[in-house]
Amino acid sequence: MAENHPTRSRGLALAVLCAASLMVVLDSSIVAVALPAIQADLGFTPAGLSWVFTAYLVAFGGLLLISGRLGDLVGRRRVFLGGLGLFTAASLVAGLAQDAGVLVVSRFAQGVGGALASAVVLGMIVTIYPEPRARAMAIGVYSFTQAAGASIGLIAGGALTQALDWHWTFYVNLPIGVVALVLAVRVVEADRGTGLRAGLDVLGALLVTAAVMLGVYAISSEVWGALAAAFALLVAFAVRQAKARTPLLPLRLFRIRAVTGANVVMILMVAGMLGFQFVTALYLQQVLGLDALWTGVAFLPVPLVIAVASLGLADKLTARFGPRTVLLSGLGLVIVGLLLLTQVSGSYFTDVLPPLLLMGFGAGVAIPALMGLAMADVAPSDAGVASGLINTTQQVGAAIGTAVLAAVAAAHTSSLTEVDHREALASGFRLAYGVSAGFLIAAVTLGALVLTRRTRPAPAPEAPAPEPEVCVAGQA
Question: Which CDD domains does the record match to this protein (predicted)?
Answer without folding.
Answer: MFS_MMR_MDR_like
